[in-house]
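#onboarding

Welcome to the new folks! Below is a worked example of what a typical request in this channel looks like: someone posts a single protein sequence, and someone else replies with the predicted structure as tokens. Don't worry about understanding the tokens yet, we'll cover that in week two.

Example request:
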Amino acid sequence: MIRLKSVALLAIVGVIAGCHETISQTPTHAHTLTDPQVTARAADALRAADLVTQDIPQTLAGIDLAIRIVQFNLQHAEDTGFKGTQTRVIEGKPSILELDTEQGAIEKTGRHLDVAISGDGFFGLKSRGCEVYTRNGNFFVNQEGKLVSSSGHLLRPGIEIPHGATGPWISEDGDVICIKPGSTLKSAVGRIQIYRFRNPAGLALNDEGLFIQTDASGIPIEASRDDSHTGALLQDFLEASNVNVYQQRLRLKLLETWRREILRAMPH
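Example response:
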């Protein structure tokens, strides 16, 4: 969660920047305030300054986290099926961080083991003994004949393609069909299971850009064949990342400038 009191902060930064050069030149002497109204105004001004400047360390920490998020978005901007992190503003509450679940562009590859999800679902993988999820349907067959992700993670549940089989063909429902050696008939060797979440924006990202279940996302739900929420599988297609590179670069420049100006305005 990031909460930046930007208006108040920028105001105090402007004051600090304007006054910083003259502070050291101001003679030091005691002031006797006799007007109660002036005294009250001075006290209010000092209190307002204290409230804002006390938040500067938290604000800088928030800016640093925002910079890391934008850098992570840019790092994975070319990754198939990647979803960037964005902010959501809730009226009367602090802004929150969540995944941008907008569908990325669906691009034709012509490769039979490339599969895109047109809808809200996720592929299930097993990574380091943990259950993770992805939108990247760039699959391969490993040496054991099993379907794996481009990073080598096993598809979950597992599907094995017989050695020397013709195909596969993958239906919109996820059925994986081959013609086994010595046969002329097509037969199903498994089904690609699609999962959905009550709140997919609440999923977390690991360092590989894979999605992890959280309390906010809810538990994974195995989609049935007639589940209209998860959409259809499209063989020979992949989904591009939904990261807007131009927007992220602009964000990064603004955040870095903001941080630099705060540090420059603070007394040394």
